[in-house]
Amino acid sequence: MLDESEIIKSTIHLREHVELSSNDKIDNIENLINQAGYELIKKDFQNDFSGFSKYAGGADYIIGFNTRHNWSTEFKRFTLAHELGHLNIPSHFSLLHQKSILVSSPGYYSIDTIEQEANIFAINLLAPPNIFKSKLDELSISFSSLKKLSSYYKISLEAAAIHMINLTDDDCSFVVSNSEREILYDIRSESFFKRHRHTTIKNNNVDNRSNVYTFTGNDDLIEESKLKYWYPSVQNDFTIEEHIFDLGYQNKIGTFITVDPN
């Protein structure tokens, strides 16, 4: 796995190539793809993948976006930024010349190292960490702040939650589960790790005392709960807020957890 700082350097190089500073928002990523000299193909590829990067020979490279599903604008932007990662991270670029094409599946979490690296590239390209952190420092760690940052950068709530957790000094975590209430993965802030040590909860079932079981998928849900419902080995009876929302793909549910410091 590449160090995140190396991946961020690749986002900076791409921004410099298309004459964007770290302060410049990327309002139209399709224009950026064209400016960078890549061809973009958008169509129904009769498959469930979200996108691909392709070496077409010579100096020609193609980014493909699959329109088969009704993806959100934020999902599309992240997918295209992810594919730009494969074309701009040096080790991915070399691999692409060997394999000719790299195909990406929907979702932020992957066990594939190059997919994880391309996701890191995507979020740091769309929301440069130094600028994102400065905006985050002006806000409280809350679902309202999450929605503001998501809207400002035109990124999904899932991507904004993960970026926020990686950059905040506060206690919070983010859990993704499926329609069967099985936990697919969770991300915890550094502060959370230090104060609430717990083993992995991946593949566990969501505790039936959680408000996830009352979530209908129609509207975001914010309710109080207990940290031990999610992380059973935590000794103290911490009160938390569960901020529950539909991720917008494959019936996945996101729960953004903030811990009451009192």
Automatic annotation (TrEMBL):
Q: Superkingdom of this entry's organism?
A: Bacteria
- Using the record's annotation, list all stretches that form the IrrE N-terminal-like domain: 60-161
**Which spans are transmembrane here?**
none
In this record, what's one Pfam family? Peptidase_M78
Q: State the PANTHER family in the record.
A: ANTITOXIN HIGA1, BLL7220 PROTEIN
This protein is called IrrE N-terminal-like domain-containing protein
Q: Which organism is it from?
A: Fodinibius salipaludis
